[in-house]
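### Sample
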Amino acid sequence: MNKSQGQRDHQARGPDSHRPAPAAGPALTRGLERAGVGQALIERDGTVRHLCQTAQALLGPHIKPDTNILFRMPHDERQLCLDWLAADNQQTLHTLQLTTPDDEHFAVTLLPPESDQPALALIQEQPAEGHGRLALARKVANDGLWDWDVTHDTLEVSQRWRELLRLPDGHPIQHSRDWFSLIASSDLFQFQADLTLAFSSDVPRFMRELRMRTPEGETRWMRVDAVVIRDNTGDVTRVAGSISDIQDRKQAEHALERVAANDPLTGLASRTLFLEHVEKALERARRLNHYSFAVILLDIDHFKIVNDSLGPGSGDQLLIQIAQRLKPVLRGIDTLARLGGDEFAILLDGLDHPSSASDVARRIQTEINNTIDLDGHAITLTTSTGFVTSLHHYDKAEEMIRDADTALNQAKANGKAQAVEFKGDMHTEAYTRLVLEKELRKAVDNNNLSLAYQPIISLSDQQVVGFEALLRWNCPEHGWIPPDKFIPIAEETGLIQPIGAWVLTEACAQLKRWNNAGLPRHKPVRMNVNVSRRQLDNPAFPDTVRQIIETHAIDPDTLELEVTESVIMGQQERILDALKNLRGLGIKLAMDDFGTGYSSLSCLHEYPFDVLKIDRSFTMVMQEKRQISAVIQAIVSLAHTLDIEVVAEGIETDGQLAALQALECDLGQGFYVARPMTHEQAFDFLRNFNGFESLKASA
């Protein structure tokens, strides 16, 4: 497009073309300015609408707002380059970034020219939220830039690129082979496949995480971002981009994956890993006619009494001893897992005959039903066991565990201290579920649900930051029903939609009352509300949230919606869109129960989370297990790098509190601070809480 044509288009648009376009936030502006990067807002006809001070210095004093500059638009619009006249010669400054905030403007970020940097730097779309904007400023300062002239096979890299790979100045990096020789062979194939796909299709850019070798022989993880540049005929002429060191993130990620696969207390397999092993056993059973296996579930009879009388620490030691007693009963091919609490699971793999499962179950009874010395106390244990074999031809691991759990419940109903095999007529649990579903519908219709509130405290200034709203149900027929019993029913039946709307309405109404109570506070109280996948899958959910916020006239910034880590796994694009829509309302988003699944640490910068909540299973053992403390430290460090606030759940001792404060964790909640309470009790707590020392004084 030439200048005169651009001016005619501009005039045709009329006076509305001068309306302001979205500008970068102050955090981005400050970060980019410190990195020597300028920002400009330029209309498509070349008219400059905005320049920051750095951009003004880069472009020269003669380029001012409302002046027109020449620019050229290559094959890919994202490869916009700016030309301007400086002194007596024409110079070219390429964009580091280009976005189109509306149909009439380009938001351009300008990279200062340096002799050791390639002519064209990485071009990437600007993230919509503040976390991504800050990441951009860090990218300019910390990433190594590269520019590959494909036509002549010449490669230019920045000094930072060399520093990241510990390359001395004399080390030759002039051609693609010089770079590719540094890539681990197992990753080079994938990287070359990326290039082949980009060259042979219309893929404009790609990203690959790979390992590269330094001259000292060290292998480090790098993230390579690349943009493909084509000429007017569509042929690839150049590939440019950046590399960033992700070694620390990868190490923390791998550590977290190892923790997620194992129970942090006993070191046994976790529920997630156990389910994977059962799924594999089911696959083998479908392929092999004579293959059989079994699943055993067991828990310790009267464990709660031991835990309450001797304390959680003694209860943990008991579980560790139980795990040690179970191991000799099993073979090397079997899987022993702790599912949670005092519930253990066993996969008996490759049985000679399904009846062998009952023999193992009896040996477990004999091994466990003995006296254990626990801190000088002689504890006589018994265990209830339920098991099921593959003869029932299951399709999913969850179904098999469900029926083993049904047999376990039958063993308890029979008087405990026994092993029961699942039979097809044991589906009384299904009947119980139908009864609970019927009662839950009545509770929704009759408004018989209630909320409890658990305080969230700043670990630095020891102030009450807010409360988490927790759903409770006191059934007239069955008494208090645990949330993990009725919330899954609500999810499966769709009742979670009206229940979720009621919870959000009630919590926001209570939040408004607290913040209007006239308490002497520097900041308003925040309210945390849990949301489920079913709610996020509902396209109308963001509008429901908006209406509730407007109805109660609360500040959106005081509402924080919590999403569990498992919710964002699978169907990620749809969940991401829902989260962005919610974030657009001005509310905060928190990832709950972080560390309990297999999600990557890298997902933190892909989702618009403001807060990360570390699962209580980490907090409870962080003092006994140094590796858990190290994982928490890595999580806190990475979250802070991304400007994400960190909350530790499940604080139950002053030692855990002190350890979390030392790791600079931001917020905390748990029984050590306060148990969930009524709204009247919560208001009294809000008014009277005077720091953690007051908790010790009242203990």
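Residues 1-37, 70-107, 111-141 have pLDDT under 50 and may be disordered. This sample (Phytochrome-like protein cph2) is used throughout the tutorial notebook.
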